């Protein structure tokens, strides 16, 4: 899970913002715990890790390329984890669809990455990556090329079409993230409606 952002648009730390009676990050971690054997939270520094309400089974990974954005976070998470594959999501995605995540996980054989595509664009922070991606990600980080999909041409990517995603999540709520006060209000409204 990527949790290194600075929440500039919201104006306060969105990871600890209450959503559904718990900090947003805990809501996301609780969902992930149902589909992942290992939970790694990537943060910019130790102070950030210590400030988050994490449980005893959650591991913290520090950015190895400060300023590397989400690509650097993906690298840090993959390099820290013990598993061969990592599911990458952000800490501000409160409506992850577990059936969709399980489906994406089933699409790994023969590939190095599994990436959903919505409106013709990949969703790289709601995707799975194998550790085989690490050297290609690091190559991009070393030259300051931070676009996540910038290394995709070097690995085998299974692009999951929008129609397949819609079978599990027709409203695409899995991809909704809390960036602004308006997003937070929508998230609270959706939770109140039982989502």
Question: Can you put this structure into words, describing what you see?
Answer:
This protein has 195 residues and is α/β, with parallel strands linked by helices. The chain has a single domain, classed as Alpha-Beta Complex (Spore Coat Polysaccharide Biosynthesis Protein SpsA, Chain A). Helices cover 33% and strands 17% of the residues. The chain has helices spanning 24-32, 46-51, 69-80, 98-106, 134-142, 162-168, 181-192, and strands at residues 18-19, 22-23, 39-43, 58-62, 85-88, 113-118, 121-122, 127-130, 157-160. Strands 5, 6, 7, 8 and 9 form a five-stranded mixed β-sheet that branches. It is globular and about 45 Å long. It starts with 17 loop residues before the first strand and ends with a helix.
Task: Describe the SSE topology.
Elements: E1 18-19, E2 22-23, H1 24-32, E3 39-43, H2 46-51, E4 58-62, H3 69-80, E5 85-88, H4 98-106, E6 113-118, E7 121-122, E8 127-130, H5 134-142, E9 157-160, H6 162-168, H7 181-192
Parallel strand pairs: 3-4, 6-9
Antiparallel strand pairs: 1-2, 5-8, 6-7, 6-8
Helix pairs in contact: 3-5
């Amino acid at each position: 899970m990527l949790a290194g952002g600075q929440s500039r648009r919201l104006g306060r730390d969105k990871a600890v913002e209450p959503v559904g009676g718990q900090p947003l990050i805990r809501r996301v971690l609780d969902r992930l715990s149902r589909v992942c054997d290992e939970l790694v939270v990537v943060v910019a520094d130790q102070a950030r890790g210590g400030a988050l309400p994490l449980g005893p089974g959650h591991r913290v990974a520090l950015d190895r390329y400060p300023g590397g954005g989400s690509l650097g976070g993906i690298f840090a998470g993959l390099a820290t984890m013990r598993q061969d594959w990592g599911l990458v999501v952000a800490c501000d995605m409160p409506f992850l669809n577990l059936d969709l995540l399980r489906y994406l996980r089933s699409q790994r054989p023969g590939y190095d990455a599994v990436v959903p595509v919505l409106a013709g664009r990949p969703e790289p922070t709601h995707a799975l990556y194998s550790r085989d991606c690490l050297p290609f990600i690091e190559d991009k980080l070393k030259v300051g090329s931070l676009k996540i999909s910038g290394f995709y041409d070097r690995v085998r990517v299974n692009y999951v079409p929008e129609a397949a995603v819609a079978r599990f999540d027709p409203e695409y709520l899995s991809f909704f993230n809390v960036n602004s006060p308006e997003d937070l209000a929508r998230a609270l409204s959706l939770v109140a409606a039982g989502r």
